[in-house]
Amino acid sequence: MVKKIIVILLFFTVFSAAEGQQIMTVDEAVQLALKNNFDILVARNDADIAKVNNTPGNAGMLPDIQLNGSGIYELNNVHQKLSSGTENNYSPLSTTTFTAGTQLSWTLYDGGKMFVTKNKLNEIEALGVIQYKDRVLATMYNVIAAYYDVVRQKQELTSINEVINYNRERVTIAQAGYTAGSLIRTDLLQAKIDLNVTMESAINQQFIIDVAKKALNKLLSQNAEQAIEVSDSIPLKYEPDENELKQKIYSSNTSVLTFQKQIDVAKLSLREFNASYLPTVNFNAGYYFSHSNNSTGSTLLNRTVGPQIGGNVVIPLFSAGENKRKVSTARLQLQSAEYDLQNVKLQVNTDLLNALTGFKNQQKLMLIEKENNELNKEYIEICLQRLRLGQSTSLELHQAQDGYVQSSTRLINFEYNLKIAEIKLKQLIATL
Question: Cβ-count burial of 305 within 10 angstroms (0-12 exposed, 13-18 middle, 19+ buried)?
Answer without folding.
Answer: exposed
